[in-house]
Write a structure and sequence with these properties.
Elements (H helix, E strand, L loop, with lengths): L1 H8 L32 E5 L4 E2 L2 E2 L1 H9 L3 E5 L7 H18 L5
Parallel strand pairs: 1-4
Antiparallel strand pairs: 2-3
Length: 104
């Protein structure tokens, strides 16, 4: 998994203005299938995902709301590698769990 993640992260390479959209994806591997429906507590997404060509991405926001998925956003910059965002995303997740009473 680490090598696959590293390969995907490398798609957002320096000097490229058009990194592959998977470059900021987080991939996990599990021993069995994990159904996502009704099991997502929080989505942490780039703020830009809520935009669609400069307009509010109402279709995506509606999908999140219809599924009862809370979300928090962070600012993604072009050609930013996922590890550069790790600390910010971890802080967002920790705050969510703390505020929800799931972490002391």
């Amino acid at each position: 998994m680490t090598l696959g993640y590293h390969a995907i992260a490398g798609m957002a390479r320096s000097g490229s203005n058009q990194p592959d959209k998977r470059a900021s994806a987080i991939e996990i591997a599990t021993a069995r299938n994990v159904p996502l429906k009704d099991n997502i507590l929080l989505a942490v997404i780039p703020r830009q995902y809520l935009d669609d060509d400069g307009q509010e991405n109402t279709a995506f926001i509606k999908q999140l709301k219809d599924r009862g998925i809370e979300w928090r956003t962070y600012e993604w910059q072009p050609n930013t590698a996922p590890n550069e965002l790790q600390e910010e995303i971890a802080l967002i997740v920790r705050k969510y769990f703390t505020d929800s009473g799931l972490l002391p």
